[in-house]
Structures are given as structure tokens and as C-alpha cells.
Design brief:
The complex is a heterodimer of chains A (509) and B (134). With 509 residues, chain A is mainly alpha-helical. In chain A, 70% of the residues lie in helices and 1% in strands. Chain A is globular, with a radius of gyration of 22 Å. By secondary structure, chain B is α/β, with parallel strands linked by helices. In chain B, strands 3-2-1-4-5 form a five-stranded parallel β-sheet, with helices on both faces. The mean pLDDT of chain B is 87. The chains are: A mainly alpha (509), B alpha/beta (134).
Chain lengths: 509, 134
């Protein structure tokens, strides 16, 4: 029972009234922004980062995590009712969810999605509870060379796996790494890229970058869509799915949980890819695949389960290895760093209250979401009545105000504006800000551990291949890097093979 | 010449439609049913769902009135842009629904109906929801 003691202590942390309140606030905000297309969890977390300064680390992360998995619930609502995916991870829900709504089964679709999300999320938390300490225990032996390899692999995977143009993602990641070098050198104290500016001497803070790229950039980009025609609100009746629907969907909920859990752990994976993979799998497995796209309950239940499971399990690499698996996790990483907590293998040992508090808060959060999502759908949909011309200035104001309050520095505000413009231009030209932020966060880790290990190896880069774990990781790195080349060669050989068309969906973070 | 009805899916809007159909039949003119919502928001209560609009068109057809349904979104000012539509349709009569709004509410939020009544350069028939219009 030694293992379970900290887990149970974690529940004591969650049940503190403050933490319960912040959990509730987090999931409500998450649900609201999940409903709003264009404002994703990453943007919201970036905007709300300054709010978390004055609270305990565990409370802050509980709230931010709530925003993340709450958004997965909220995204479903608009997908089903209005054919507008609120989040990238609920794009596939549109196919069958909206058809179900047109057949008058909107309530059933929403109910199935909520129940599936709850089961998927809870299953993933249970998996997280058991898997995370094992991974962390394994990673305790990691030294600088292993971290170098892991950081490299993480950046590469995020840049290549995430949907969208790979070359652009790699460019963004490279810029992120470059930005990470700004400031005084950690070993020699040499100033780099500071242009004689004292405020740049400590390096660029993570928060202004995140707030600019995700917050302001996203707001500016969405303003372009201000001239869109409104739709009529749809009515939702009978939210509880019938026993027959539940039976039909139970298999896909089970499969979605498993698939989502494993795809969420992978760096570069996450809720979006999990939901798409689950939809594809359900369609493949179905006895009558032609029902899909015409309102098949499995097509809603599977992806919705998978995206919640993935959202939860993507905490595993962050909390156990200190490697964020996607852009939202990079923000979580930044939030932890602000609080003076370095995520990594030591987290479970040194900060059990934080680790188990956050993990266990997800049980509570999922229950809260299940309770709220079914009866309160109508209230959440009301937020869609707010015009972009009103919403955007308010969010922009909150962002800039928040940026100022961190250090009471106008320089930070300027940085946010500059990165906001960069973020807007990036979106406009098809660059995703995710890889940039991730590379920026991992850049520091990469640089310091690489130079430390080179000191250990006496400057011999082949030393990385002398240690089994770092060697394996680096070989995987090389394989992933060469995969497109191998694939293009293979494609040239089998030009006659069938072309697989993937839906062109950009990851909205 | 035609008759323009400002239509919203509310009792007042339904009453305006009923009055508009009756008036069009009486005058033997065409009917233009306008359902306009402000653009920018994703969802707006005043947008009529497709089935409601189809029902409105069929009600006009049953009465033997030739009706067209248009849904032009407006940007800033409903009254101005609605009256542009009216002018473009060369309407002989405008039919709108009225709802009760308190003095304070009218002061703060304004009233589209009042502005249409004041600014229109042709006859306006204002109808109330409780059937008093007919």
C-alpha cells in the first residue's frame, strides 16, 4: 500500500476548498472557450498565465489543466449543433454529430459525447496514475546526454507529426531555438543577441512569447472572420442517450479510450490526432461503414472519447520527463517554471502533493464536466451570441493588462505586442506557433544539457552514442528525421499504390 | 411594387408576416420577406431557421401571394440597411412587428422599430403580437 499513500494524500490536496474552486473555475472556462471557435485552450492558458502568479503551484496547475480538458468537452457542442468545430480536436465530430442533430438526435449526440469523454478521461487518469510513477522512476537515471536526446526528439516529433506543413513547422522550431539563446550565456556569462539592451540580458521571458503568439496573435487572426453571417440557434432536447445508443457506442468508447491514451503520450500527438485516428478506426471496424457521415453514434462517441483520453494522457511526458508533448503542454511547462517547479522525474518524489493533486483533480474535474455539460448546454451556447467585435477587444485588453502586471514592465507589454504581430503573420502564412513555443521552452534544456554532456564527454559528440538510452533516442531521432526521405523513395517505387487523402485540418492551438 | 415584411422568429414577427400576407393579397402585390441579423456573432436569436422561413414562404403561397425570402446580414445599423432593402425593392408598404419596450430600455438600447417608423419614406404598418393588428 506504500504506492497508494501519496495518491490518497493527493485527494486531500484536491479537496481543499481553494483547489476545488479553482478546478471548477478551470473547467468552466475550459468549457466556455471550447465552445468558442478560434479561441483554443493554448490561447486561453497563455492569456490567463498571469492570473496564476499569486496562487499555490498546485492550484494554478489544477486550474490550467481544467481549462485544457474542459475545452475538449466544450468543442463538441458547437460541432454537433452548428457544424462549427469549437476545437481542432472535435473537427471529426462534425461529420456524424451534425447529421445526428439534423435527424433530431442532437441531445443523444451530446449525451454520448459527454459520457464518452467522461469515460475516456477517467480511464486515462487511471492509466496516468499507474504509468506515470513507473516512467518517472525509469527517467530518474537520466543524465544530461539523455535529456539532450529527449529534447531533440521532442522538438522534432512535434514539428513533424503535427498536422500542417512540415518545413514550416521546422522553421518555426528553429526560430524558437534561436529565441531561446537570447540573453546571457549560462556558462560563460557572455551576452548573446541582447543588442546592448539590459532588459534582454536575462533572456526573453516565456510568458510574453506565449501571450503574444497564442493570445494576441490568435485574437488578431480571428478578427478577420468578423464578417460572418450568424446562424439560427438550434434546440436541444432529450440529452440522455437511449440504452440502445449506449450499447451501440460502448465498443467505440472503449477503443477510443485506449487509442487516445496511447496517442496522447506520444510527443507531437494529442487530442486532435487521437480523435482523427479514432474516427478512422471506427469507420474501418464498422460492419456498415456507409453509415458514417450519416449520423452514426460511434462516429461521435469514439473521437470524443479519444480526444479526452489523449488530453489527459499528454500530461504523462510533461509530469514525468519534463518534456511537453504539444503546444498546450509547453504552456503548462512554462506555468510550472513560473511557479518555481521544474517538471521532470523528480517531481513525483519531491513534490508528491503537486503531482498527485493535479492528477487527482482531473477525476473531480471530469465529474464536474459531466454534471455541467449535459444540462447546461443551452447556457454555454449563449456565449456564441457575443460578436467578435466585442469579444476581441476585451480579450486583447485582458492580455495586455496581464502582461503588464507580471513584472510591472512596459517592456513585457511591448514584447507581447511584437510577438502578437509575429503570431498573426505566422498564422496568416501557414506557420503554426506551436513548434516555436515548444522549441523555445525546450531550447534552454537542450542547450544546457548538451553543453554539460559535452563537458562530460570531453568535447566528443560520439559520447552520446556511448550510452544506451541516449543512443536509442538519437537513433529514433535520426529515423524520424529521415522518414520523409524514406517515404518519398518508397512512394517513387510504388507510384501506382493508392493515394491516401488525409483531411486537411490545421491544428488550432 | 411590392410589400416588404421585416421578419424575425418571434410572435411579433409572425404577426407582421400574417399582416403582410393579408395586405399583399388585398393589394395584389408581391411580398418580400426580409430576415436580417447582425453579422459577426456565430449564433443569433433573430436568424430564422430554414424550416421557419420555408413555412413562411408556403404560408404566403397558400394565400396566393408571390413571396421571396431574403436574409441579408447587416453590419452596423439595422434601420438604415433595412430601408436600403426597402428602397431597392421599390416597396409600397413596409410591415414590421412591434414589441413592448420600456422607456428606460428604449433609452439605453434604442429601438429598431421606432427608427424604421421615423426614417421610412413610405407607409409603415406596425403590428403587435397579440393579434391586435388584424
Amino acid at each position: 500500500m506504500d504506492f497508494l499513500n501519496p495518491v490518497i494524500n493527493g485527494f486531500a490536496v484536491v479537496l481543499e476548498p481553494t483547489n476545488l474552486l479553482y478546478c471548477l473555475i478551470g473547467v468552466v472556462i475550459g468549457m466556455l472557450i471550447g465552445v468558442l471557435p478560434g479561441l483554443g485552450p493554448a490561447a486561453t492558458i497563455a492569456i490567463l498565465l498571469p492570473l496564476t502568479y499569486n496562487v499555490e503551484p498546485v492550484t494554478a496547475i489544477i486550474m490550467l489543466a481544467g481549462i485544457f480538458y474542459g475545452a475538449q468537452y466544450g468543442g463538441t457542442i458547437t460541432s454537433v449543433l452548428l457544424r462549427l468545430p469549437g476545437e481542432a480536436s472535435s473537427v471529426v465530430t462534425v461529420f456524424d454529430g451534425y447529421q445526428m442533430a439534423r435527424q433530431g438526435k442532437a441531445g443523444t449526440a451530446l449525451g454520448l459525447a459527454a459520457i464518452g469523454s467522461f469515460i475516456g478521461g477517467t480511464a486515462a487518469i487511471i492509466g496516468l496514475t499507474f504509468l506515470a510513477p513507473i516512467v518517472a522512476g525509469f527517467a530518474l537515471d537520466f543524465g544530461p546526454p539523455e535529456y539532450t536526446a529527449l529534447a531533440l526528439l521532442g522538438i522534432l516529433l512535434v514539428a513533424t507529426i503535427s498536422s500542417g506543413a512540415k518545413a514550416k513547422a521546422l522553421i518555426a522550431a528553429a526560430v524558437g531555438l534561436l529565441l531561446a539563446t537570447v540573453g546571457r550565456d549560462i556558462f560563460t556569462g557572455q551576452s548573446r543577441f541582447t543588442f546592448g539592451n539590459l532588459q534582454l540580458a536575462d533572456g526573453i521571458d516565456f510568458v510574453p512569447i506565449a501571450m503574444g503568439l497564442f493570445g494576441l496573435g490568435e485574437i488578431l487572426y480571428n478578427l478577420e472572420e468578423r464578417h460572418r453571417a450568424a446562424k439560427a440557434p438550434s434546440k436541444v432536447s432529450n440529452v440522455w442517450p437511449s440504452r440502445k445508443d449506449l450499447k451501440q457506442a460502448s465498443g467505440s468508447i472503449g477503443r477510443g479510450s485506449l487509442l487516445g491514451f496511447f496517442l496522447g503520450i506520444l510527443p507531437g500527438g494529442g487530442a486532435t490526432i487521437a480523435s482523427m485516428a479514432s474516427y478512422a478506426m471506427e469507420k474501418k471496424r464498422a460492419k456498415q461503414p456507409e453509415r458514417f457521415g450519416k449520423g452514426a453514434p460511434e462516429g461521435v462517441a469514439g473521437p470524443e472519447t479519444a480526444n479526452n483520453a489523449a488530453a489527459t494522457s499528454s500530461f504523462i511526458p510533461l509530469l514525468t520527463l519534463g518534456i511537453p508533448a504539444n503546444a498546450t503542454m509547453a504552456l503548462m511547462f512554462g506555468a510550472l517554471l513560473i511557479q518555481g517547479v521544474t517538471p521532470g522525474p523528480q517531481l513525483v518524489e519531491q513534490n508528491p502533493e503537486l503531482f498527485w493533486g493535479v492528477v487527482n483533480s482531473m477525476y473531480i474535474g471530469n465529474i464536474l464536466l459531466l454534471i455541467m455539460s449535459l444540462p447546461l448546454v443551452g447556457i454555454f451556447v449563449k456565449i456564441l451570441r457575443v460578436r467578435a467585435a466585442i469579444l476581441a477587444p476585451v480579450t486583447a485588453l485582458i492580455t495586455l493588462l496581464g502582461a503588464y502586471t507580471i513584472n510591472n514592465s512596459m517592456f513585457d507589454v511591448t514584447l507581447v505586442v511584437v510577438f502578437g504581430i509575429i503570431g498573426y503573420l505566422m498564422k496568416k502564412f501557414g506557420f503554426e506557433p506551436g513548434p516555436l513555443v515548444l522549441a523555445f521552452v525546450l531550447g534552454e534544456l537542450l542547450e544546457s544539457s548538451m553543453r554539460r554532456s559535452l563537458l562530460v564527454f570531453g568535447g566528443d559528440p560520439l559520447g552520446f552514442f556511448g550510452r544506451p538510452i541516449s543512443a536509442t533516442l538519437l537513433i529514433v531521432f535520426v529515423l524520424v528525421a529521415l522518414l520523409p526521405v524514406i517515404r518519398s523513395i518508397a512512394k517513387r517505387k510504388f507510384t501506382a499504390s493508392t493515394l491516401v487523402t488525409k483531411p486537411d485540418i490545421k491544428e488550432k492551438v | 411594387m411590392s410589400i416588404v415584411v421585416g421578419f424575425v422568429p418571434t410572435p411579433a414577427g409572425e404577426a407582421a408576416l400574417t399582416a403582410g400576407i393579408a395586405e399583399a393579397k388585398l393589394r395584389n402585390e408581391d411580398l418580400v420577406i426580409v430576415n436580417s441579423a447582425r453579422e459577426g456573432a456565430l449564433v443569433d436569436k433573430s436568424v430564422a431557421p430554414d424550416d421557419v422561413l420555408a413555412q413562411a414562404a408556403s404560408r404566403a403561397a397558400e394565400a396566393g401571394v408571390k413571396a421571396t425570402v431574403i436574409q441579408p446580414p447587416y453590419q452596423h445599423d439595422l434601420a438604415d440597411e433595412f430601408l436600403d432593402v426597402v428602397r431597392a425593392a421599390n416597396a409600397s408598404l413596409i410591415v414590421i412587428g412591434l414589441r413592448h419596450r420600456t422607456q428606460v430600455g428604449k433609452f439605453i438600447l434604442g429601438s429598431h422599430a421606432q427608427r424604421i417608423l421615423m426614417q421610412a419614406d413610405r407607409p409603415v404598418l406596425a403590428v403587435k403580437a397579440d393579434g391586435a393588428g388584424l
